[in-house]
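Appendix B. Chain record.
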Amino acid sequence: MLLWVTASVAAAAAVAVASWMRAGRLARKLESLTQSYWELRYDFTRLRSQVARLDPETVAAAEAEAPPAAAPSGVTFVSLASMKAPKKKE
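Structure tokens predicted for this chain:
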């Protein structure tokens, strides 16, 4: 019985260590992908501004082809305090 408990604890510890190591690798990979994404966004914006300076008609044509922005809805902010029923005095 003690042998089974010891083996189970050892197996659980091995699985926990392996999971911990995998989670660390995935976290580093996610950080790397996030860094690459922001670098690419920065480069794209920088290059787009350079193209706009070189050829303004191209940017104007691209903006004309872009779908129009969504029309603002008629929904406005309503505070929760205004929705509370007033307290009745007894």
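Further analysis of this model is presented in Appendix C.
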